[in-house]
Design goal:
single chain, alpha/beta, Isopropylmalate Dehydrogenase, Rossmann fold, Alpha-Beta Plaits, 6-stranded antiparallel β-sheet, 20 strands, elongated, binds nicotinamide-adenine-dinucleotide
């Protein structure tokens, strides 16, 4: 008997396109299975956009979500242009839905695939990484996007992945990063993974660099069980996984936070088949199965999932899965729901039946360590075009054109002009210019003439005496650099934490 006997309130949004059809089918199956859910309908997406709600999430939806904490959501058509925001991104970020969980299985031979033994879960960090959307154009030639990886965000997702693996009886967790290149950001993720893995000796753990990891996923997905990774890599990996399972239409996903959780199909609103009773409701149904486990109705979740597997085995298929010769009956969205309802209480005969139990995936973060933080220097980024002063002496002038005008550009942009002049400027105020890089490649001192240089220069300074410094000294340096005619476009402080550099070292440092 499940723990909760009274109906659990669940906010339900039908969404756009095929959303209303597949939501209706899903709700019918859950109700028939005896799910104790008190459905709270809200409108999200197109109708809200048309009413002028830029996020697609009206006020009444926010208050219902905050009160009831669980959302079953149909797919939403992403609006084009016009300052509208994606409902999914808005919900994920505003409600702190830090974990995206996508289970991907093959259902061979009922769904054709080259990977019969595939059965994996991708746990993707959902809020950080390049998805912060903090982007700038800093010079005429260079744009940047900030990749933010935080310690609490990383701790939370990695701990969640291990808790998930243990709760669902999975044996291995694989972490994928690119920490051979991004030692600070991806390195933090990898180190955190290693530390948390040590707390779970019952679960095998491994780390793969993302490129070989993605290649192995595409080639031998059977070797993976749970994968935990950063936002961008997870985004790409989860689509590869769905595609090679042969079942993009069968995927369900959960977006889980400390409070609120949102469940939805992996696919979109499929406007090409909307309103025709053609859509396969399985993706949304499997998301709803995860939702039932989440709200403590594991027994009902199991009943629904096994009836669904039996329906698949019996060859009752919607058009996207129907194959003449192997399928037995072609049905529409509601006909498929009827077939699942007719099989409630039955288990699959060939595919392994699923077993769920109540789980608790609440993650406690450890106390952060107390670390000493010392300012050891500064990276100053310049917009510099190599244009020499009219008299040909002294430091090369910064971009400094009149507003709107293009700078005079010396095609050579010679670092041997910039480096010594800038070093002299810094020396006069007690700073030492350690190096200049362009797109991360050292060009001074001892650069190569062949290195292509853009108008974006990273100049690394340390105090001349090598001591710990402070912000007043930084301001003196910046004042001198600005006074010498250079255009400073950004700075990054170089901190040591407990004596270890918190910044990447340049070549030869
Ligand atoms: P899509 O997933 O909606 O459709 C891709 C193809 O798969 C189409 O041919 C469609 O007919 C088919 N398909 C999708 N779901 C199906 C189902 N349940 N049964 C049978 N066939 C199905 O992707 P798209 O066409 O790129 O996107 C359509 C809209 O959905 C876009 O506005 C997109 O931004 C949005 N979208 C929303 C979400 C979401 O709300 N979570 C996710 C992805 C895309």
């Amino acid at each position: 008997m499940d723990v909760s006997e009274s109906p659990i309130p669940v906010v339900v949004a039908e969404g756009d396109g095929i959303g209303p059809e597949i939501t209706r089918a899903t709700v019918r199956i859950l109700d028939a299975a005896g799910a104790r859910i008190d459905w709270k309908p809200v409108v999200l997406g197109q109708v809200a956009y048309e009413r002028g709600v830029a996020t697609g999430v009206p006020d009444d939806a926010w208050s219902l979500l905050r009160r009831h904490q669980v959302l079953l959501k149909g797919p939403i058509t992403t609006p084009q242009g016009g300052g509208y925001k994606s409902v999914n991104v808005t919900l994920r970020k505003s409600l702190g839905l830090f974990a995206n969980v996508r289970e991907t299985k093959s259902y061979a031979p009922y769904v054709p695939t080259r990977h019969e033994g595939m059965n994996l879960v991708i746990v993707r960090e959902n809020e950080e990484d390049l998805y912060a959307g903090i982007e700038h154009r800093q010079t005429r030639e260079v744009t940047q996007s900030l990749k933010l990886i935080t310690r609490p965000g990383t701790e939370r997702i990695v701990r969640f992945a291990f808790a998930y693996a243990r709760a669902y009886g999975r044996r291995k967790v694989t972490c994928m990063t690119k920490d051979n290149i991004m030692k600070a950001t991806d390195g933090l993720f990898h180190k955190t993974f290693d530390a948390v893995a040590a707390e779970y000796p019952d679960i095998e753990s491994e780390h793969l660099i993302i490129d070989i990891g993605a290649a192995r996923l595409a080639d031998t997905p059977e070797r993976f069980d749970v994968i935990v990774t950063l936002n961008l890599y997870g985004d790409v990996l989860s689509d590869i996984a769905s595609q090679i399972a042969g079942s993009v239409g069968l995927g369900g996903s959960a977006n889980v936070g400390d409070g609120v959780a949102m469940f939805e199909a992996v696919h979109g609103s499929a406007p090409d088949i909307a309103g025709q009773d053609l859509a396969n409701p399985s993706g949304m149904l499997l998301a709803a199965v995860q939702m039932l486990v989440h709200v403590g109705q594991a027994e009902i979740a199991q009943r629904v999932a096994n009836a669904w597997l039996r329906t698949l085995e019996d060859g009752v298929h919607t058009g996207d899965l129907y194959r003449a010769g192997s399928s037995i009956e072609r049905v529409g969205t509601q006909g498929f729901a009827d077939a699942v309802i007719a099989r409630l209480g039955e288990d699959p005969l060939h595919l392994p039946p699923v077993h769920y139990r109540k789980i608790d995936l609440h993650v406690e973060l450890p106390e952060p360590p107390v670390e000493r933080k010392d300012l050891r220097g500064i990276d100053v980024f310049l917009d510099w075009h190599g244009a020499a002063r009219a008299d040909g002496a002294g430091p090369a002038a910064g971009a400094g054109p009149a507003a709107g005008a293009g700078p005079a550009d010396d095609a050579r942009r010679d670092p041997e002009v910039l480096g010594p002049a800038l070093a002299a400027t810094a020396k006069a105020v007690g700073w030492h210019l350690k190096m200049v890089t362009n797109r991360g490649v050292k060009v001074w001192p001892e650069g190569f003439a062949e290195t292509f240089c853009t108008d974006h220069w990273r100049c690394r300074f340390h105090p001349a005496d090598g001591a710990v410094t402070d912000f007043d000294a930084v301001l003196r340096l910046l004042g001198a650099v600005h006074g010498a005619g250079y255009e400073v476009i950004k700075t990054e402080h170089l901190y040591d934490f407990d004596g270890l550099p918190g910044y990447s070292l340049g070549q030869g440092e």
